[in-house]
């Protein structure tokens, strides 16, 4: 087994990764959707959104495996972040870098690997969106194009997360000397100075120039108003 070399800009790369504050967070649908689509498009049993930390690769989203992380020295993705182009290994048994890798000789028995680097605007490659199979295979040009698009979307989600965190922290510093908003872990209401719980939009509107409009997202309609959704679906069928 040949562990990947450490990138020359490793300290800057790790700093960029940690700025997203995503390592160790719970699964999120937006990232899960990316790995699901990747697995379906490439017809592979395994897909991972893998972030390469100092000594491990950690999976923000995954399809087809139970593990949440592996050692960095075992990581195919640590090799994939060495360049901007995808790393495609058609048969790991025929590649001296991976032929005796524990992930090849043991579970999940990797044979095929295709890793698409997650590169931010500062050219820091923090991880990959990858697909894995237990049989040798190749990807079509169309599959490669879709995977590259999904990898860009993953970076867009991460950037949005970082900007949201920065905005919230800035707001806290302006309105709260301790820099903290106390929120309920379940309903997401915020506690004001009087100890009363308010919806977050009410809390923010009284402390900033932000304004809010309200609607119902598709997921909440499905859960809270299934009868309305059923009527809409019937109406759509009648239009066909």
Properties at a glance:
two-stranded antiparallel ribbon; 240 residues; 18% strand; 8 helices
Structural domains: how many: 2
Q: Which structural class should the secondary elements be placed in?
A: alpha+beta
Elements, N to C (H/E): HHEEEHEHEEHEEHHH
| CATH architecture label name of the largest domain | 2-Layer Sandwich
Helix content: 25-40%
Instruction: Give the distance, in angstroms, between the N- and C-terminal Cα atoms.
Output: 58 Å
Number of strands: 8
CATH homology superfamily name of the largest domain: GAF domain
Average per-residue pLDDT, rounded, comes to 88
CATH topology group of the largest domain: Beta-Lactamase
Instruction: Please report which band the strand proportion falls in: under 5%, 5-15%, 15-25%, 25-35%, 35-45% or over 45%.
Output: 15-25%
Supply the CATH class of the largest domain: Alpha Beta
User: What best-fitting shape do the alpha-carbon axes yield?
Assistant: globular
Question: Which runs of at least 5 residues are low in confidence (pLDDT < 50)?
Answer: none
Question: Please, how many helices?
Answer: 8
Q: Over the alpha carbons, how many angstroms does the gyration radius reach?
A: 22 Å
Strand order of the largest sheet: 3-2-1-6-5-4
